[in-house]
Amino acid sequence: MLAVFIIPSVLFPPKRPPPRPAAVPAESVTVTPTTPGAVSEAGPAGAPTARPPAGPRGLAAETVWVTSPLYRFGFSTRGAQLVSVELVEYKSFSSGDAGAPVQLVRPGSPWLGGRLSIGADTVQLDTLAFTPSAAAVNVGREGAALTFSAAGGSTTIAYRFTPDDYRIGVEGRVGAHTQGGVMAISLGDGLRSVEADSLIDYREYAVVTKAQSTEKTRFSSVDPGQRQVLDGPFEWVAVKSRYFIAAMLAIADSSERFAGAILTGGPKAGKIATTTQVTVTLPVPAQGAFHYEVYAGPFEHRRLSALGHGLDDANPYGWSFFRPIIHPVSILVVDVLFAMHDRLALGYGWVLIIFGVLVRLALWPLQQKAMESQMRMQAVQPLLKEIQDRYKNEPERLQREMMRLYKEHKVNPFGGCLPMLLPMPVLFALFFVFSNTIEFRGVPFLWLPDLSRHDPYFIIPILMGLSMYAVSKLGQIGMPKNPQMQTMTYIMPAMMTFIFLRFSSGLNLYYAVQNLVSIPQQWYIAKRRLRQQGKTPGK
Question: How many CA atoms lie within 13 A of 415 on its CB side?
Fold first, then answer.
């Protein structure tokens, strides 16, 4: 099954999309108002100076920075839009960023720009010149607020921040009208990729919505230039990448639910789409007031789970066809690893090693029972063959006699399978945990630069393959000669090594530890098997 799912993608990878130009770090960009109708944006030293035209109202845009220990948000006075989301605690691995903080907003694709439609009229909030309540905001312990006003104060948009959360409270008022309207709010055209392997990141790009249940629409499923309408009402609408998420939330009891979302497909490279324009619609009552929340930050399962409303299910573990099994196991494994990391005060590499040892020790009694069942099965093989020869033309009688033989000698023909199957859900769960859990992103261990990425020297997968071969070879000691099993002793380790070469080094580390810890037990089992046969180990 692993070969069917994975080997074709390894042998025939999809065409890699062309690299996107790296964003200029926010520290190196200054916005200086010039003559009316133009904006001067100076890049790094020596870079050419661009003078894009101002919006339809001829305004000169400035950026108001909001800083806290977790983030640095930038809001433009043009449309009161969110033009920069820097996550201070996370570094970008994109080749053009040189380790700068993660920047989620793509250049030229701001978030939260709004257009209010009232009947046949439209108020273009994203082009209005707003006046901020402060030139800069530092979010203290009690939180902070930033208010933008336009049109003589009749139109306001207020943002509220807390220092230890990535949520932004949004409240607005657009005049007063005799009839309600619909606000169309932009979520940009997707998050900016900040991973070393952008192709893997682009595969995870999707829009996720929550009505009664969560629904995912991948960017690649929206045709270029075509519109796709998602009908609400939604509690939240989110745009996600592999590790980060930007979500608009209407989860408060007093919040009006989002009516829907409009997706406009961007260009594709092969089957991979890197952009999709996302617009969320929100009903606005006659008094012109609206409010919602925004989460713009890392996909931390514990943080999003605490928010409730299934937001942590926007990036679930496991493929859809066996997610009901893998997702709960993955959550359990993640909770155990986090608890060990917090209580033992050890790095995640050592936590994985200890976890692998504990799992193998927990399975030791079952392995012993499986060994005893295997030896009893080996002892009745002559009797079993005699029964098969005697009743080979009587299938029903053969079945009854075989069951009688198993019962008399206390043999369970499936007794050796359970210990082999029990570790598999954990192994599959760890595959998805290292693919989707941001806590392992960029975590080094010994020579490994990142536990969530493959070993650059392929040491761990080769060690895993050799240890798997040793366990399989020891398992053949004292067993009847079986050419098929002997062939698999060589084929399986080689195939698994090839498959695991590009898997996360953390997953390889766990599996290698499992195999290495199994070697003494397999040797002990082989010695017992040989003693029962009256043989000497090693002969």
Answer: 19
- Domain shared by 427 and 304, yes or no: no
Asked if residue 346 belongs to a domain, the reply is yes
Structural domain span for residue 176: 55-315
Q: Are 126 and 241 in a shared domain?
A: yes
Residues 6 or more apart whose CB falls under 8 angstroms from that of 120 comprise none
For residue 170, give the 3-state DSSP assignment: strand
* CB burial of residue 453 (10 Å; 0-12, 13-18, 19+): buried
By the 8 A CB rule, do 474 and 516 touch? Answer: no
User: SS3 sequence, 131-153?
Assistant: EECCCEEECECCEEEEEEEEHHH
Based on the fold, state whether residues 303 and 432 are members of the same structural domain: no
Query: How far from the centroid of its chain's Cα atoms is residue 50's Cα?
Result: 37
Q: Which residues pair with 148 in a beta bridge?
A: 132, 157
Task: For residues 240 and 435, give the distance between their C-alpha atoms in angstroms, rounded to a whole number.
Answer: 14
Q: For the chain (length 539 residues), average pLDDT per consecutive 10?
A: 48 46 34 31 32 42 94 96 96 88 94 88 89 95 94 89 95 78 93 91 93 91 93 93 94 88 91 93 87 94 87 82 82 92 94 92 77 69 81 83 79 64 81 89 93 92 92 76 76 91 92 89 79 61
pLDDT tens, 149-165? 997 788 999 999 999 99
Contact (Cβ atoms closer than 8 angstroms) between residue 199 and residue 129: no
Burial of 218 (0-12, 13-18, 19+ CB in 10 A): middle
For residue 291, the surrounding DSSP H or E stretch is strand 289-298
> For the packed helices 323-344 and 348-362, what is the interaxial angle rounded to 10 degrees?
120
This prediction has a pTM of: 0.79
Contact by Cβ (8 Å): 128, 58: no
Amino acid identity of residue 58, one-letter, is G
Q: Are residues 348 and 274 in the same domain?
A: no
CA distances (Å), 297 to each of 113, 192, 225, 303, in order? 19, 12, 28, 10
Residues 170 and 191 in one domain: yes
Q: Are residues 483 and 355 in the same domain?
A: yes
